[in-house]
Structure formats: C-alpha cells, structure tokens
Design goal:
Pfam families: Transposase_20. GO terms for molecular function: DNA binding; transposase activity. This is IS110 family transposase. InterPro entries: Transpos_IS110 (IPR047650), Transposase_20 (IPR003346). It comes from Intestinibaculum porci. By secondary structure, the chain is of the alpha/beta class. It has three domains: 113 residues, Nucleotidyltransferase, domain 5 (2-Layer Sandwich), CATH 3.30.420; 90 residues; 145 residues, no CATH class. The chain has 13 helices and seven strands. The strands form two sheets. Strands 3-2-1-4-5 form a five-stranded mixed sheet, sandwiched between helices. A two-stranded antiparallel sheet has the order 6-7. α2 links the parallel β4 and β5. α9 crosses α13. The protein is globular and about 80 Å long.
Length: 372
C-alpha cells in the first residue's frame, strides 16, 4: 500500500492533516487531524491496521510538502521504521478546483494522490551534518543582508536631513569619516552615532563569519570542490560553500539544465495551441543558491574579457591545467554573452540573470567532471 499522506499546516506548526489512500484503487481509507509528531502519525497508521486486517503487512509511505518543519519529522519517522518522503512544492500537481476552493483537507488529498500516482518530485534528504553546514551558510548570508539594511538606513537618514556625500564611492574610509563629521546635534547626532555603532558591529561580525567560511572551505570534506569552484572569476569561498552546502551531491542532477532548473534560473512557459510564450525565470528552487549565482555572475562580467587579476590567479594556483582551462572558458563565455545581450538592448538585470543561468551550467560541469 502507498499514499499515507500528512499535509503540514505551516500556519500553526502544530497539526497535520492525514489522508490514507489505498495504492491499488486510490480510494480514501481514513482522514483525521493530529499533532505534527512522528508518534501521532505512527498511531494513525496503527489505527488503519486495526480497521483493516488485510493491511497489517502493507507498506506505508508518509509524505509531506517541503516547508517549515524541514527534515526533522522525516528523520523521526524513518527512525520508527516508517518510509517518509518530502515533496517539492513546485512539482505538486493539483486539480483546477483547488485554485478556487482550498483547505487543509483538500491539500492532504491532493498530496496523497500525487504520492500514489508518483506525479511529483521528491526532495533530497541531506544528512544532519550537511543540513548543519547549509544552515550555517544561510546564517552568514542573513548577516550580510543585515549589514546591507543598516547601510540603507544610514544613507536614507542623512539624505532626509539634506546631506549628500560629495565623493564617488560610499562606505569607504572617506565616506565613514564624512558621516562622523556631519554637523548634527541633539537626537539626530545620537541617532547617527547609534546607526554607525550598529554598522561597525554588523561589519565586524560579517568579517568574522566570512573568515570562518574561509576556514571551513579548507576542511578536507569541502576543499577539493571549493578549490575547483574558486577557479571561476566571481566565485570565492562564501559562494563556493553556499553552492556545496546546499547541493553536496551534484551527480543527482543528470544535466546542466536540470541543475539550473533546481536553482529556478530557467524560463517558465505559458503556451497554448501553436502559440509559444516563454515567461520570466521560474524561481522554483533554492533561493540562497540562486542569489549566490546571480551575485557571482554580476562579479564575473566585470572588467575586460579574458583578463585575470592577481586574486583569481592566486585562487587558480596549483590547480590542474584542465580545471583552469574549463574555468577560463566558462568565464569568457559568460562575459561575451553579457556584452552580446547588452548590445541587443536587453535590460541589465535580465542580462545578469541569463548569465547566472549560463554560469550555473558551468558550475554543474565542474562539480560532475564534465569539463571536456
């Protein structure tokens, strides 16, 4: 038997809707709502076995949407000997009715049907160690975002007061000195001092965390992969570890396009009849990796085509000629694509996204050994 489904209710974080579907017929056996715990779900399965003696030796599959509970419930169920899968939300197929009438019970039925008919993709379950590294990289990224927000708040604050920095580049030593010397008094002066204190604290924290990422990338578990990725222009330790920590096994993607789709960097489609219409990128994937890939592409396209700075040469030092050649080939191709699309009049952000998609394909090739 397959299709025992638990639909997680993200609004409460406390309950799951259970729908039991018989694999052979798709008929609903039992529905109820219980606490989101492995023991309660095990009790639900035992209740079914008590109702149907013929199902005592049946194989049960529990599945739920990827979401707020992460992998913890899945691991707890597996520890109890219950097979469990996590479904990629973006691949779940639903009836048109579900777009008009939606509730937890209908969602549970829909997911149970998807499991029973093998209609959706299953999420890769990382090991606890892999998940811990991914969580750490997300935390570092959140600190980076926090620093960005503080910078925006300071810029907005001084602009409201009528001050405009006369220099070209902000957040340089000259800019910081200018901020500290502004002629303010009272609570405006106190406000700016607090802002600058928060800025220094956030900046120091981020520098400390980024140094820890550099040390992490030299761990024997990650060094080989990280060193290969750093051969690309635009990829340093943080981006490399973000890609590794959120993927680990690149071989589970059978093509470069499949990896790009996992990042949500492939265009969507809204076609009907003989009319084909591509839409913007799907964004159905790992948002942290997609953001890292876009930032890497933005850094990659800067400067002259084919030029390699001292920092990039240092990162490539000691690597094989094949690895360096593949990385340089990918970098040059991305740079040429950037200028080609810009010359066509395509908007800058759209060009960067297209380059990020191309970049992700080269990353997949590097990580899977498809470099020839």
């Amino acid at each position: 038997m397959k299709g025992i489904n638990t639909e997680l209710i993200c609004e409460s974080h406390l309950f799951v809707n259970n729908t039991a579907v018989e694999g052979a017929t798709g008929a609903i056996i039992l529905e109820n709502k219980v606490n989101a715990s492995a023991k309660k779900i095990e009790g639900f399965i035992d209740k079914i076995k008590g109702m149907r003696v013929d199902l005592n030796d049946a194989d049960f599959i529990v599945g739920y949407e990827s979401g707020c509970l992460g992998y913890s419930l899945c691991r707890e169920l597996k520890d109890l000997g219950i097979e469990c899968v996590i479904l990629a939300t973006s691949t779940i197929q639903g009836a048109a009715k579900n777009k008009v009438v939606k509730n937890d019970r209908m969602d549970a039925r829909m997911i149970a049907t998807n499991i029973n008919n093998s209609q959706c993709k299953r999420v890769h379950i990382p090991t606890p160690e892999e998940e811990a590294v991914a969580n750490y990289m997300k935390m570092v990224d959140q600190h980076k975002n926090a620093l960005k927000v503080i910078k925006q708040e300071i810029n907005a604050f001084v602009l409201r007061l009528g001050f405009r920095f006369p220099g070209k580049s902000t957040w340089t030593l000259k800019h910081i000195k200018w901020l500290r010397e502004l002629d303010l008094d009272g609570y405006n002066k106190l406000t700016l001092e607090e802002y600058l204190h928060d800025y220094e604290t956030a900046k120091n924290n981020l520098e400390r965390l980024e140094q820890s990422v550099v040390e992490l990338s030299q761990d024997e578990k990650y060094k080989e992969k990280a060193d290969k990725l750093k051969c690309f222009k635009g990829i340093k330790e943080k981006t490399a570890m973000t890609m590794i920590a959120n993927t680990f096994d690149f071989d589970r993607f059978n093509s470069a396009n499949a990896f790009a789709a996992y990042l949500g960097l492939v265009p969507g489609e809204n076609s009907s009849g003989q009319k084909e219409n591509n839409t913007s990128i799907t964004k159905m994937g790992n948002s942290y990796m997609r953001k890292a890939m876009v930032e890497a592409a933005r850094a990659c396209v800067k400067g002259k085509i084919g030029y390699k700075g001292k920092a990039l040469k240092a990162r490539q030092a000691g690597m094989s000629a094949e690895i360096i050649g593949y990385a340089d080939k990918g970098t040059e191709r991305i740079q040429r694509k950037y200028h080609k699309l810009l010359n066509r009049g395509m908007p800058l952000n759209k060009v960067i996204t297209a380059c990020a998609r191309e970049f992700s394909c080269f990353v997949w090739g590097m990580m899977t050994g498809n470099i020839y």
